[in-house]
Amino acid sequence: MSSTTDKLKGLANEAAGNVKQAAGKVTGNDRLVVEGKAQELKGEAQRTLGEAKEGAASLVDRLTGKR
Predict the structure, then answer these.
(1) For helices 3-27 and 30-64, what crossing angle results, to 10°?
(2) For site-directed labelling of 66, which of 1, 32, 54, 60 has its Cα 20 to 30 A away?
(3) Sequential DSSP letters for 20-60
(4) Torsion-angle region of 2 (φ positive above 0: left; ψ -120 to 50: alpha; else: beta)
């Protein structure tokens, strides 16, 4: 996946996870809260991976004189 795709999917998972957590808290559904937290953490990891890929590509470009 590209860095942009990773970052977008990460943001989407973070948002969905936050919604699940809120819904679980409102309804008293602890399982939904836990699932939401897990999805939020997955999203954070995806977004971080995308940022790392972008940083690595930028570094390679600078080292090879492409930027």
Answers:
(1) 160
(2) 1
(3) HHHHHHHHT-HHHHHHHHHHHHHHHHHHHHHHHHHHHHHHH
(4) beta
pLDDT, tens only, 31-56: 999 999 999 999 999 999 999 999 99
Structure tokens given for 15: 């948002």
pLDDT tens digits, one per residue of 1-19: 899 999 999 999 999 999 9
The three-point CA angle 46-18-20 to 5° equals 110
The two three-digit tokens of residue 18, written as one number: 């936050």
